[in-house]
DNA sequence: CCCCTAATTCCACTGAGTGGAAATGCGAAG
DNA sequence: CTTCGCATTTCCACTCAGTGGAATTAGGGG
């Protein structure tokens, strides 16, 4: 009776685990609860399978069940694992404090991110604000790779084949202006290669510059500095860029010291 | 040849998914990389199984592989899921800003947490600091349930049978002073029932008071306020406690307004 | 109260997953 | 460069865990 479509993962890869992770991923930022039906829709999995997997995720503490509305939400466990990821990260451990100091010194925002598929994910984002009405740190927030300085610096830092693979994905998803966009992305990558950084303003009146951090045995990271409420100008971009280059050099030095550990 | 011990999960529950989650959990705060061997040791799973599951987790983006040292670390994906959890949380969305305002107004730390097994996990922790040398927000950080005001307030907020189940677990794990400790926990629970809050100083010179937040269709949360560099005094505790009660009432009002949504 | 919708459980089937053994890879020592 | 020793990965035959369509149950609205 079971007409399971043959699993493509082959000998490596565990189908149920993959599917369970897919279910967790179905909870995108902003969604609170999802019912099994919605999950089945979003993931394309059979409803009965979803029913069983969500139950397992509840038992494992990754989901909380909301009996009154027959639905689920991400449980606190996921942020404790996220916290473990951040405290484990040797890069964040080493340069987190430096980033804070630099933000205060230069009076601008400093961020550190790496890639999750086609998005950049902040590991840390320090917002400079003159008054202590500080923002909450947005660790975990995602921004699109192809539109941001962070993402383009990342692209400049990774190996050729992976870069081309990602560029193809952008082509597929952005509806309009693809050609101009891709050219712009490549221009940013060249800028990183020649100047060490690239500058982008994907949000109005925000100027951001970023540079890749490439270290053996670690994913490629991107470090950025940004400033709000300014007009984009090449002079300003290169000023911030020079700060960024200097700071990135200091970071790499610090990281080189503690890496072999 | 395969002599798999019969899976206890029965018809509900997916063994592979459970095991995969166990592997993610093996990365506790502070650990950077783990090899398959270490993971097998920590989880008690067969080495070959671990090998296959870690590969799946890499393919699913939850782990990064460090080829040079044949090991794995948590990938950025886990913090984006964590971020989704935080931005989805209706409680945090509603009272996050209020917490920040309250922290500034009362000049003390304000935190919001819920339970992950026997630990309390901060969803938000706003540290008051007179100078803007603010700390990074420690969302995701865990503190032991039985030793903290947060945890005891949580215990006071949950249903009887679940509470007794947890108390038994504490008995099992704490080596010394169990009896005195449990009595102390029960005293805190009584305090919550009579005064609305409990006060605990589990860290030297830090006074913390907490109160539960119980809402239909949501996990039980605990809200706390704390102050550093003070001596524990009942007068101070009840002063902060009254602030906390007032603030919690305001929070519950705000939450009642937006819950039915 | 009864229908309608959606989630859950049932069930027979089978291939996905298993774990011990063998092979492979990697680093260190000679 | 070769050999040894350890750890990880691959192989493989076996079988039970997992599957998904159908039946059932549970809610919620009229």
Automatic annotation (TrEMBL), chains A, B:
Keyword Transcription in annotation: yes
InterPro entries: GAF-like_dom_sf, HTH_MetabolicPath_Reg, Tscrpt_reg_IclR_C, Tscrpt_reg_IclR_N, WH-like_DNA-bd_sf, WH_DNA-bd_sf
Residue span(s) of domain HTH iclR-type: 14-76
One GO term of the biological process aspect: negative regulation of DNA-templated transcription
Gene3D superfamilies the record matches: 3.30.450.40, Winged helix-like DNA-binding domain superfamily/Winged helix DNA-binding domain
Keyword annotations: DNA-binding, Transcription, Transcription regulation
GO molecular function terms listed in the Swiss-Prot or TrEMBL record: DNA binding; DNA-binding transcription factor activity
Pfam family, one: HTH_IclR
Domain IclR-ED: 77-257
Record-given protein name: IclR family transcriptional regulator
Organism of this sequence: Bradyrhizobium sacchari
Organism taxonomic ancestry: Bacteria, Pseudomonadati, Pseudomonadota, Alphaproteobacteria, Hyphomicrobiales
């Amino acid at each position: 009776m079971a007409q399971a479509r043959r699993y493509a993962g082959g000998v490596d890869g565990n189908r149920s685990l993959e599917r369970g992770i897919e279910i967790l991923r179905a909870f995108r930022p902003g969604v609170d609860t999802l019912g099994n039906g919605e999950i089945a829709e979003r993931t394309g999995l059979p409803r009965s399978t979803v029913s069983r997997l969500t139950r397992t995720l509840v038992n494992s503490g990754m989901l909380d069940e909301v009996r009154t509305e027959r639905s689920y939400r991400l449980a606190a466990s996921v942020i404790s694992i996220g916290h473990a990821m951040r405290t484990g990260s040797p890069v964040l451990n080493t340069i987190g404090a430096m980033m804070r100091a630099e933000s205060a010194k230069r009076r601008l925002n400093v961020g550190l991110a790496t890639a999750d598929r086609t998005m950049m994910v902040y590991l840390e984002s320090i917002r400079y604000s003159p008054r202590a009405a500080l923002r909450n740190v947005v660790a975990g927030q995602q921004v699109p790779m192809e539109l941001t300085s962070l993402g383009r610096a990342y692209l400049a830092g990774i190996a050729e084949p992976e870069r081309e693979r990602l560029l193809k994905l952008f082509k597929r998803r952005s509806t309009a202006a693809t050609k101009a966009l891709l050219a712009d992305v490549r221009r940013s990558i060249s800028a990183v290669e020649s100047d060490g950084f690239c500058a982008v303003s994907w949000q109005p009146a925000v100027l951001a510059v970023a540079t890749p951090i490439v270290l053996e045995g670690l994913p490629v990271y991107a470090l950025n500095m940004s400033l709000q409420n300014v007009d984009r100008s090449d002079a300003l971009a290169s000023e911030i860029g020079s700060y960024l280059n200097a700071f990135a050099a200091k970071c790499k030095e610090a990281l080189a010291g503690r890496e072999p550990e």
